[in-house]
Design goal:
about 130 residues, alpha/beta, 4-stranded mixed beta sheet, 8 strands
Length: about 130
């Protein structure tokens, strides 16, 4: 089973470059008005469609849950080498869990969170995350 995300973007070329670097692979299909990535790990069918503008906060964020600090650091280092600025958070409490994470942003402002859940908590101090 694959999760499918269809995302509207304003600049298909810029988004293709961003997501090729983010996913570490090229798309399997590119047309003038469409692009598709198929990932095995995680199982993801991710498509892009160009539109005139993207507005509003219709999406909170996207993310990848990782299962070790080494895995988290590997992705952070890889994406920073690709030229992305990452915003890190260590031992942050959100979504009723203590987490380490970092964030990057695509050309249309969609945020991507890479996070490691360390333990569950009884509090949710940050309302903008949902890992």
């Amino acid at each position: 089973m694959n999760i499918h995300i269809g995302l509207n973007v304003t600049k298909l070329d810029a988004s293709l470059s961003f997501y090729s670097k983010l996913f570490g692979t090229k798309p399997v299909k590119v047309k003038q008005d469409y692009a598709k990535f198929l990932l095995e790990d995680p199982g993801l069918n991710f498509t892009l469609r160009p539109v005139e503008h993207v507005e509003g906060n219709h999406i909170n964020h996207f993310g990848f849950q990782l299962f070790s600090t080494d895995e988290l650091n590997k992705h952070k280092e890889r994406l920073e080498k690709e030229g992305f600025f990452s915003r890190s958070e260590s031992d942050t409490t959100c979504c009723y869990a203590r987490q380490d994470k970092f964030w990057i942003t695509d050309p249309d402002g969609h945020e991507w969170e890479f996070f490691l859940t360390k333990e569950d908590t009884e509090v949710d101090t940050i309302q903008t995350c949902c890992g």
